[in-house]
Amino acid sequence: QQQVKQSPQSLIVQKGGISIINCAYENTAFDYFPWYQQFPGKGPALLIAIRPDVSEKKEGRFTISFNKSAKQFSLHIMDSQPGDSATYFCAASVSGAGSYQLTFGKGTKLSVIP
Amino acid sequence: DAGITQSPRYKITETGRQVTLMCHQTWSHSYMFWYRQDLGHGLRLIYYSAAADITDKGEVPDGYVVSRSKTENFPLTLESATRSQTSVYFCASTRSSYNEQFFGPGTRLTVL
Fold first, then answer.
1. B2: confidence class by pLDDT, cuts 50, 70, 90
2. I want to staple B93 with a disulfide (CB 3.0 to 4.6 A). Which of A105, B23, B29, B42 is the partner?
3. Which residue does chain B place closest to A1, by CA atoms?
């Protein structure tokens, strides 16, 4: 059972464009939604995260939009740059469960072309 | 240097051999995790540990064994490696009061 569904699998965006990656979850107990960025040959690193008490969080060119009723959240990368080319993973967890386990989506490979 | 390290970074082994992947963190984080990353599957949790001597299964634990005698170390052992265990393995850790997981650089394991 895949609890976090991520789309698209791959994305090609022109430099300066907007990259949008979507995730949907099933478990209504999830209350922490991070996005991780992974460059080739490296481990994933936290990019930005949101909790369901807000509908949007922005950090620089990166924005998470959260729709609790639809059980969906998305990552928007404004003014996409070639340096943003990486694989992006959404994830979700239940804070109070005590295990801090993250359930990951399958990832989106973003390519930003000049 | 502070952080989370994994060794070896690359490993080639044969079917049936025992392999141990090492993970070491210098932050004294309570929680540690092992994931495997495969194309089309993303990151899947193998085992996790809440503290020394406390471990629990994740989504794909079969064929793997873990131990945690010290807070800073969390080795992962493949007791009898199979080709299906060819993957990239990541170790991660987090403080008990935060959700952010910090990942190591990964170990690329090939089982022939």
1. low
2. B29
3. B59
